[in-house]
Amino acid sequence: MNTISRDVVVIGAGASGLTVAHELTKAGRSVAVLEARDRVGGRLWTRDVDGASLELGGQWVSPDQDALLGTLAELGLETYSRYRDGADIFVGRDGTRTEFTGADLPLPQTTLTEIESLTAAMDRLAADVGAEEPWANPRAAEYDSVSFAGWLETQTDDADARDVIAMFIGAAMLTKPPHTFSLLQAVMMAASAGGFSNLVDADFILDKRVKGGLQQVPLRLADKLGDDVFLNSPALDVRTDDSRVTVSAGNVEVRAGHVVLAVPPNLIQRITFSPPLPRRQMQLHQHISLGLVIKVHAVYDTPFWRDAGLSGTAFDPHGLVHESYDNTNFGDTRGTLVGFISDERADGVLKLSPPERRERILDALARVYGDAARRPAVYYESDWAAEEWTRGAYAASFDLGGLARFGADMRAPAGRVYFSCSDIAGRGFQHVDGAIRMGRATAAALLN
What is the mean pLDDT of residues 127-155? Predict the structure, then answer.
């Protein structure tokens, strides 16, 4: 086994871990980054599939994501706008497909009024609770004791309004059914994006993409670190004493002053700690889990929906694919659609054989875009729950009562052990922006 010494050892070569390492090396500290996979990037992965370049994980950049935008500028990466010209599509509870323009969904005015009221209520709660320390709000325990679905039922009798609002938080973001997470978790999710109004605005939250793919952020950060990044090196155990920490990872052992766990919270339990992590940390990790989503990529010879005057943006809250977008790469003459299947609906189709699942999903896209959607030249499903070193997407969230009870402990160092990932971010929660913010904050804490 190769034994090396560094000031800090980082476990996880995703955007957060590599940001920690980058900031520390800029300050003159020595680092080693241990990555279990054979690549860097974590939940960012741009891969060639049958001749098509697909972003299998995170990909979008919002205008409020200052940390990510600053990193893109520092690394010399360029962005381009998501295609959004033309009409959007909405499919109602009865399967009626409507093309529309403007911000309002094609629903009865009474339902739109309820949606506006719920949106305003969520914006008020997000402003009051905030993203950084929602557990500190005087009503945190109260908000954390009721499910988001339960709260919506107390606000309106309009089922369509409830379903639309629940889709944006549950299926689209936390990727869990709305009866499984609390109002406090939903409000924190909204606050992390600057408010619920931002979260439901596709032109805001899904504004731009990076030319060549968002994985270039960790790839370029790793390039700066060179041989200090160790791939195929899953951390097996972490041993600490009064003077140092020792991390064993297959063929390499790192002795350092501190260790940073830059992995999703659900993976921390796979590491053996000696002495064990504090009781609060061990309890916390039993009350937080990742959601489930399938990201579907369908590449066509041409973006046929554009010829029909469509933007590619579609919402089908009662269908299998709850939302989908034009995801055509910069400069590509082909057209790409990306769609999402979350929580219990994903459970259902994952029980099918791959051919049956493909047929069901393409039928769902055809319900929105027409028969041409059934004939992609390239088809691929990103299932992060099947990834050994992720096991879900997009981020970890608490069960009922967990955020108020354990939230204050999420980011607290445990002696020489520090934590850094998008799952425990406030602003930018579950986005690369949050991963970078946490990386910078963790590096600053270590330097101080």
Answer: 98
Are 272 and 250 members of one domain?
yes
Q: Are 223 and 314 in a shared domain?
A: no
Q: pLDDT band at residue 50, thresholds of 50, 70 and 90?
A: very high
Q: What CATH number should be reported for the domain holding residue 432?
A: 3.50.50.60
| pLDDT band at 1; cut points 50, 70, 90 | confident
Please write the tens of the pLDDT for every residue from 52-74: 999 999 999 999 999 999 999 99
Q: Is 366 annotated as a binding residue?
A: no
CA distance 340 to 344: 12
To the question of whether residue 35 is assigned a binding role by annotation, the answer is yes
Region 106-124: mean pLDDT is 98
3-class SS at 265? helix
Distance CA 67, CA 61 (A): 11
Q: How far is CA 328 from CA 151, 331, 334, in A?
A: 38, 8, 7
Asked if 173 contacts 430 with a C-beta cutoff of 8 angstroms, the reply is yes
36 known ligand binder:
yes
Domains held by the chain: number: 2
Token reading at 363: 């039928």
CA-closest candidate to residue 349, choices 315, 383, 376, 372: 383
The tens digit of pLDDT for each residue in 92-114 reads 999 999 999 999 999 999 999 99
> Exposure string (b/e) for 223-252, b if CB count within 10 Å is 16 or more?
eebeebbbeebbbeebbbeeeebbbbbeeb
Q: Are 432 and 70 in contact (CB under 8 A)?
A: no
Residue 316, both tokens: 């089908």
What percent of the chain is modeled with pLDDT above 90?
Answer: 99
Under 8 Å between Cβ of 424 and 411: yes
pLDDT digits 0-9 by tens, 242-264: 999 999 998 999 999 999 999 99
Please compute the mean of the pLDDT values over residues 165-172 and round it to a whole number. Answer: 96
358/383 Cα distance (integer angstroms): 13
Q: Do residue 228 and residue 377 come from a single domain?
A: no
The parent domain of residue 261 ranges over 2-43+215-277+414-447
Co-location of 267 and 359 in the same domain: no
**Same domain, residue pair 300 and 372:** yes
State whether 297 and 381 are in the same domain.
Answer: yes
Cβ atoms of 277 and 413 within 8 Å: the answer is: no
